[in-house]
Design goal:
This protein is globular. The longest helix is centred in the first third of the chain and has 25 residues, at 81-105. It is α/β, with parallel strands linked by helices. The protein is built from 14 helices and 22 strands. The structure holds flavin-adenine dinucleotide.
């Protein structure tokens, strides 16, 4: 039997639920189809448990700084890893419960099962057929586990099972030093686990600016060994695993595989949509409407590979839900790109990445935090921030950083880039003293000094009084 709806949403994750919030305001005739666990990737196995682990690790790590603050006895502090993992799960369960409230509210509109397209408006879910005027694909992604790592069985972990562990072994490898791998590797190292990180690339955590990357690699390498630029491979040695990359090798008890994520679109019958899929199986879609070609089908969140981040998944779900309720899709302006990696110092990329910019058309302002006043007081004086601005107009285009409290500096810069402010306009705004943001001001002043028609005044002119701001 085929049942018909106004809208079918496939996937009860963050993006699907964001779409649901818009759709259910306008129609009762919708269905939410989900295969697998409810509660969202972000709350269950992603953003939230990973940050809970990182916070515990950072708290324990602070003991290493206590001596500098003239506090003794830190050597007597210990961490209880099983208890840390229990705390992670307790917090996680609270966040998941919040998400489950929402899916429970619509349980009469829900189908548990894997959806597959038979036609652009017709789905097969188990033995049911679902017809919908509009369909939203929000099926998320899953960890990539290449065969050579999968054979390690329970000695191989992904982010899906890391937080479920009762305890963790004393030696681990983290394969993949992208954003997720870098932040988790540092957290595990800070909890006292001997970590070795591997990546085929020389760049870590999504950084494209080699200078910022070098600083990030140097700072993280001070906490755990990292072998970059060569592919790693596992060799089983009895109960242990040897991870080899070129001439480097390490014996560990478990491996965390963090080699990226694959969208859950491969078994969805997308070939039945009647549009050509790209070489990664993704249908053509418009990122300002989320519509697939000119079909009554939308694709949002990690499923489309576009920007696999939580705030983007929410936006895309909203856009897809909004457009699913209209005859003509509305076009939405997307936010300035902002990607944060929760290492310490914090790694972030804002706006245009360094490698996207034409180096003849930009100036770069930078600050090395080793001598920054507030950072020195807090014993966090390390890191580099580089801002990129248009050489002629001074328009801020982007930034990359590995900087103390980088997540906050990154937000400030993202707001600035999105508001299309220039270096001088940002310099004309308040900077308190003594704060880390003064480090950002140093980078901005550096950029301002290189602009065409340079003008070193920080303050905006009021009928050109001609007075420079006090340094
Ligand atoms: C460890 C980790 C840490 C992260 N940290 C951050 C962070 O700090 N900040 C940040 O912005 N982002 C972070 N992310 C990314 C963020 O979690 C994702 O971008 C976001 O959760 C994607 O949401 P989604 O709705 O696209 O997918 P999901 O929440 O995964 O939802 C997809 C749903 O669809 C279901 N489904 C799949 N296939 C089918 C099918 N065929 N039929 C029906 N249902 C199906 C799935 O089971 C799932 O319930 C992190 C991710 C991980 C893994």
């Amino acid at each position: 039997m085929t049942k018909s709806y106004d809208v079918a949403i496939i996937g009860a994750g963050s993006s699907g639920l964001s779409a649901l919030r818009v759709v259910r305001k306008q129609t009762d005739n919708f269905v939410l189809i989900n295969h697998g666990s409810y509660g969202t990737t972000c709350a269950r196995v992603g953003c939230m448990p990973s940050k809970a682990l990182i916070e515990a690790a950072n708290a324990f790590h602070l003991r290493k700084m206590l001596d500098a603050f003239c506090v003794s006895g830190a050597e007597n502090l210990a961490v209880d890893i099983p208890a840390v993992l229990r705390r992670v799960r307790r917090l996680r369960d609270g966040f998941v419960a919040g998400m489950l409230n929402l899916t429970d509210e619509v349980k009469d509109h829900s189908i548990a099962g894997r959806a597959r397209f038979l036609e652009p408006q017709l789905l097969q879910v188990g033995d049911r057929r679902v017809h919908a005027k509009k369909i939203i694909i929000a099926t998320g992604s899953r960890p990539v586990v290449p065969g050579e790592w999968a054979v390690l069985g329970p000695r191989m972990l992904t982010s899906d099972d890391l937080f479920e562990q009762e305890t963790l072994p004393s030696r681990m490898a983290v394969v993949g030093m992208g954003g997720l791998g870098s932040e988790i590797a540092q957290a595990l190292a800070r909890l006292g686990i001997e970590i070795t990180g591997f990546d085929t690339s020389d760049h870590i955590a999504g950084l494209s600016d080699s200078q910022v990357n070098s600083v990030a690699v140097e700072l993280l390498s001070a906490e755990f060994a990292m072998h970059l630029g060569q592919a790693a491979e596992p060799v089983i040695e009895g109960e242990r695993i040897r991870v080899r990359a070129g001439n480097e090798s390490v014996v560990v008890d478990k491996v965390l595989v963090a080699l990226g994520r694959l969208p859950n679109i491969d078994q969805m019958g997308l070939e039945n949509l009647g549009v050509a899929l790209d070489d990664r199986g993704v249908p053509p879609f418009d990122s300002s409407t989320m519509q697939i070609a000119d079909l009554p089908v939308y694709i949002a969140g990690d499923a489309n590979r576009h920007l696999p981040l939580l705030h983007e998944a929410l936006d895309e779900g909203y856009i897809a839900g909004y457009n699913a309720m209209r005859s003509e899709p509305a076009c939405f302006e997307r936010r300035v790109p902002l990607a944060i990696v929760f290492t310490d110092p914090g790694i972030a990329v804002v706006g245009h990445r360094y490698t996207e910019l034409n180096k003849d058309e930009i100036v770069i302002g930078e600050v090395d935090f080793s001598n920054q006043g507030r950072a020195r007081m807090a014993e966090m004086n390390q890191g580099l921030l580089r801002v990129y601005a248009d050489k002629n107009s001074g328009l801020l285009l982007g930034a990359e950083m590995c900087a103390p409290q980088g997540e906050h500096l990154a937000h400030l810069l993202a707001l600035t880039v999105q508001r299309k402010l220039t270096v001088r306009e940002l310099l004309g705004m308040p900077f308190y003293h003594p704060v880390l943001e003064e480090g950002l001001r140093t980078a901005l002043r550096d950029a301002a000094s290189k602009l065409v028609g340079k003008d070193l005044a920080d303050l905006a002119y009021c009928e050109r009084m001609g007075a420079d701001a006090i340094d």
